[in-house]
Amino acid sequence: MGSLRAQIQTRGTRLKTDKHLQSALTALLRGFHGTAGVYVENLKTGSVAAVNADTIFPTASIIKVPILIGIFNKIKTGDLSYNQTLIYDTSRTRGGSGLMQFFKDSSKTSLDVLISLMISYSDNVAALWCQQLAGGGVQINQLLENMGFKDTRVNSRTPGREKAYSNYGWGQTTPREMATILKLIREQKAVDAASSDCMYRQMSHIFYDGYALSQIPPYIQTASKQGMVNDSRSELVMVNAPHGDYVFYIATKNNKDQRWEKDAEPWELARQVSALLWHYFEPKDKWRPAKTALKLVP
Q1: Torsion (CA) 30, 226, 42, 145 in degrees, nearest 10
Q2: What distances in angstroms separate CA 201 from CA 35, 207, 230, one per listed residue?
Q3: Which catalysed reactions does the entry list for this protein (predicted)?
Q4: 172 lies in a domain?
Q5: Which of 216, 144, 209, 172 is CA-nearest to residue 61?
């Protein structure tokens, strides 16, 4: 873990800014009615572009990615097993996104089902259960600190983080840090290689594909997570593009447009950023998205 922390702290010296892409993203974000940030990294070339990339944003459901790492860390240590049986009871029920809230009391389930629901369907009940199984916010945050992340934290149900919860909600991060977390998973460096591969597979089966993912051809593999509340909409995406993987995190907060409609400004921004990046890194690809209805938001 110490060597990983050192790699994260020194990795910036090996990256170079893509000034053309930086300029394009700056122009795109400039007119947003609220606060927007983005971090983009091409894993093949080591080029980056960043706007407000070290600004702290609410994660909403994207905090489920650090929770996922916490779960697999417990699996590695032997405290949990991937397929272990669990029993659902309705005292865990809460609203919001996901399917587990509709399970019958005393239903038999398993940890792998919780993980899949938490990531693919952004299930809140499964995520809070996973957070508990991972040792709670305190242990997950310690793991994040050990990995070298100073701003990404779980706030909800975490002693000592009540003020941060008031400011940011369930979790907080920066575009640069969360993109780096997904990069570590892609490079088999989060927990261990086998855990990283399993986490990446989970993140490659996302139900909510009407935002940034809608601008990437359906025949291209992606790994992602979305997080959305009224005044903050964010998206984390890794694209396994033909000419090299790239990762990006688009975040907003203080949104003036808080509508949950297809054309809400934060979602339009996510699509615009994603489309810009796809055609920037894959300029010869002529694919354009069809106009299809959005799925429900997480």
Answers
A1: 100
A2: 32, 13, 29
A3: a beta-lactam + H2O = a substituted beta-amino acid
A4: yes
A5: 172
For 88-104, write each residue's pLDDT tens digit. 998 888 877 788 888 88
The answer to whether residue 293 is domain-embedded is no
- Domain count of the chain? 1
Assign residue 225 the CATH number of its domain. Answer: 3.40.710.10
* Total Cβ atoms within 10 A of residue 273: 25
Q: What pLDDT is stored for residue 168 in this prediction?
A: 98
pLDDT tens digits, one per residue of 253-288: 999 999 999 999 999 999 999 999 999 999 999 899
Whether residue 277 contacts residue 248, with contact meaning beta carbons closer than 8 Å, is answered with yes
Residues composing the chain: 298
Q: Would you give the distance in Å from CA 264 to the centre of its chain? A: 20
| Radius of gyration from C-alpha coordinates of the chain | 18
User: In the chain, where do the E strands start and end?
Assistant: 16-17, 35-42, 47-51, 57-58, 85-87, 108-110, 153-154, 171-173, 222-229, 232-239, 246-253
pTM over 0.85: yes
- Residue 286 covered by a domain: no
Does any domain span residue 129? Answer: yes
DSSP H/E element including 168: helix 162-168
Does the structure show a pLDDT above 60 at 295? no
Span 28-39, pLDDT tens digits: 999 999 999 999
DSSP 183-224: HHHHTT-SS-HHHHHHHHHHHT--S--SSGGGGS-TTS-EEE
How far is residue 24's CA from residue 42's CA, in Å, rounded to a whole number? 16
Q: How many CB atoms lie within 10 A of CB 236?
A: 26
Six token digits for residue 28:
């795109």
What is d(CA 173, CA 62) in angstroms, rounded to the nearest whole number?
9
Q: How confident is the model at residue 7 (pLDDT cuts 50, 70, 90)?
A: low
Beta strands 35-42; 57-58: pairing state? unpaired
How far from 243 is each of 147, 246, 285, CA to CA, in Å? Answer: 29, 9, 11
